[in-house]
Amino acid sequence: MPAPHTQLLRAFWRYEQALMTNDVVALDDLFADSPATIRSDGGTTLVGHEQIAAFRAGRPPVAARRLTRVHVREVDPATAVIVAESVRADGGTGAQTQLWSRGLLGAWQVNTAHVSLAPAPAAPRLPDDADLTSIWRVTVDDAATPFPKSPFPEPLVPVGPLNGLTVAVKDLFAVAGQQVGAGNPAWLAAAPVEATSAWAVTALLAGGARIAGIAQTDELAFSLAGTNIHYGTPPNAAAPGTITGGSTSGPAAAVAAGLADVALGTDTAGSVRVPASYCGLYGLRTTHDAVPRGGLVPLAPSFDTVGVLTRTAGHLAAAADALLPAQDVVPVTRIAVVPALMDLAEPAVQKAVEAALLALALRSEATVETVTEIGPGALEAWFTAFRTVQQAEGWAVHGAFVASHPGAFEPAVEARFHAGAQITAAEHEAASAVLEQARATLRALVPPGTVLALPSTSSPAPRVDAGAVEIDFTRAATLRLTCLASLAGLPALSVPTPRVGTAPVGLCLVGGPGQDRTLVELVTGGSL
């Protein structure tokens, strides 16, 4: 918790817990004992501590809720306003606004409180005339060859964590009986029909999931925009008129629109976390090599990893359980914040992330601490080194195909590959040395029990009609945030609790190697 508000936030959290347990004595103590104290819920206004106490004593317990954002605004050293947003088990939302004052003995109490409740918002959906070919390359309904099902014989199918859920598979994973298109028609034309499915696909099927379809991706996953010139830009049901982000663009669009429950994607430089942020989804990038990459078209093998996106915390936990190996779950007691990372995001995103982080810290009772050992200079050097190695590996993996198919790629994507061809062995070696140092620094920052918190993206999703300059600027700013977990091989989870107005953005949590399940438990533990 930020030091200036520690005592206030302890009082607020005591109030929140007292509400959940219907502790009338604690609630009476936390409301100022004054005839001027006010409590209103939009329908009834109670004036005076006596009226409020009588109301508390006679009403049933409050429905369980989960804090999503907490905003604190100091009026003066002895007065502050807290606006707390929450979600209930039925999906309904609420907001409580409280004026807190500190008395002569230093205790914080509520002088004025207002509560507002709203029903569950309508689920995002696409217009009836939406072009689904920008989301799907092939679906379960139009596949010439049926998609594979659970590897277990029908009578022996166990009750898996994903029973009844559907998966949108990024078009980089092998699916038995299908081709891998990799977001590019020339690649698809030359692709063989796969005899077996990728390891991750098989794991999800073994967990009880069904494939809804193979979803579009940016060309060979070398983009963060999700704007494929061959297949179109997938619509973002969570923020209409904006891009979904890439390169797990199609799967993210499918999940955001309710066309699938889980998106199976990849994350080399943020391609799970960026769509999660733009589409209001949970997005988990797993520890490098924690999930086998067999059957996956690579981009930069030093950084490629498997990831998933979901609309709900429960689906996230189920998908993670199906994919991840056994890991020790360590309670998180410390959340580190690096000011230089927060400064990479737009001011509105910073405030949104801070509000979501404060709610998470209160729920988990973890301490938020500022870490200043990493400054802007180091971050820029790390980003430059990451980009150098990523481009060099991209050319090493796909250079022959790109060179033999001139003009087959979007110019910006083709230029990124060709930039890799210009990197010398000495430059690659020097960049790799910088990354080794960065990796050691970042891993030391997140020992067991500690996570790093930062914005998932530098801004909300750009509009579909944004110009190339704006898209490139946003991509570069966001890459400076997303490359950190990638270069260190760390798990990272984008949580969809921050909002900029009505636009979704993500709070990103980065853990130590092999702490994927810890991140999931931190976010989903006791979830409604």
Describe this structure in words.
This protein has three domains: about 5-120, Nuclear Transport Factor 2, Chain: A, CATH 3.10.450; about 130-325, Amidase signature (AS) enzymes, CATH 3.90.1300.10; about 335-375 and about 425-525, Amidase signature (AS) enzymes, CATH 3.90.1300.10. It has 15 helices and 19 strands. The protein has helices spanning about 5-20, 25-30, 50-60, 185-190, 200-205, 250-255, 275-280, 315-325, 340, 345-365, 375-405, 410-420, 425-445, 470-490, 515-525, and strands spanning about 40, 45, 65-75, 80-90, 95-100, 110-120, 135-140, 165-170, 210-215, 260-265, 280-285, 305-310, 335, 365-370, 450-455, 490-495, 500, 505, 505-510. The chain has an eleven-stranded mixed β-sheet with strand order 7-9-8-10-12-11-16-19-15-13-14, sandwiched between helices. The protein has a six-stranded mixed β-sheet with strand order 2-1-6-5-4-3. Strands 17-18 form a two-stranded antiparallel sheet. Helix 8 packs antiparallel against helix 15, helix 11 (about 375-405) packs across helix 12 and helix 11 packs across helix 13. The chain is globular, with a radius of gyration of 24 Å.
